Amino acid sequence: MNKKLKNVILFGIFILFLFISTFSKQFDSSNLWKDANDSGQGFNGLLFKNPIDVSNLTISRSIEKTSSKNLIKYDIEFEYSGEDSSVRILGTPVRQIFFGNSVEPSHSVVELKGDYDNINAKLFNEKFSLRDYYKKTQDYNFKAISQIRVPLTSEDSTYSFTVYYEPRELLYRGKDLVSESSAFITNAKVDKFSNAQKMGDNENPTFSQGGFYVNAQEIKNNSAISRISIFNNLSYIIFLASTILVFALIWLDNKKLNKLYPIFLMLIILTFYRFLGKGSTTLGILVGYPILGYLGICISKLMNKDTLALSKQELKQSLAYTIVFFVIILIVLIIPRAF
Length: 339
Description:
The chain is α+β, with helices and mostly antiparallel strands. The protein folds into two domains: 3-26 and 225-337, no CATH class; 35-220. It is built from seven helices and 15 strands. The strands form three sheets. Strands 2, 3, 6, 7, 8, 10, 11, 13 and 14 form a nine-stranded mixed sheet that branches. The protein has a four-stranded mixed sheet with strand order 9-5-4-12, with no helix packed on it. A hairpin with a 2-residue loop joins β13 and β14. The longest helix has 31 residues, at 222-252. The chain is elongated, with a radius of gyration of 28 Å. The chain starts with a helix and ends with a helix.
């Protein structure tokens, strides 16, 4: 067999093994991107049984900073003038809600039906600027759930209360906060919706969908996003450059330059998963990377030879190089994770 063709096939086998490894949960995009809290995954908002009887609905949204995290605060006020009815508070409030002495809410967890899938589709396909990052999590859609039902009567007329929610936090590698998002929805006419904080570079998409008024918020950590972008771009460049250089070495078939095969194959392992937008668990790095490294070094030795056989000495050398590679990944990948 022609040596160049043989080396192309060997390199293809190496890349194939890398692709096969992505079927493992140890190498998946969910290892990079996670939602920090379950309570922040629900829609915020109000679902009225008789929305036509609601008037002068005003909502003010602000951020209340606590020692541990930010909370979204909604100051809500409206008038009700119809027959006895009710309103459901969407999502999972994190503090007690005070409605007044005459109002006695009931508690029951229900999953609501409606046009919520289309609202999610518009948010995560059009409105949110970080939509590609959200979609890398296991379940990125907001959930239409409710735990509190509040009775409404025309006798009370005016209702005024405050609701606190946890925002939905998107974390990178389980520790870097990338964004805090929320989506307030209601099926009643909103007379005024105000945000107390300045949005700046953040997003505040507002739209109507299937009879719902939607006012979402996306607060971004631009410094974290910038670091992620730089690291991703660097990984893309290294992966593509290493791949091109491997093909260049195959074409040149120079004995002195062929010693560079192991270096380029190891660089491909280190950047392959990030090139595909996937992350690696600690177990995947400690076990998967050395196995792939040993395979890559053995293949690099075969690419230097005219035959397809390795001696015992070459296998021992490959193991020694793999140990060196293992030390490198400990320094470059594992130790930084501890900080």
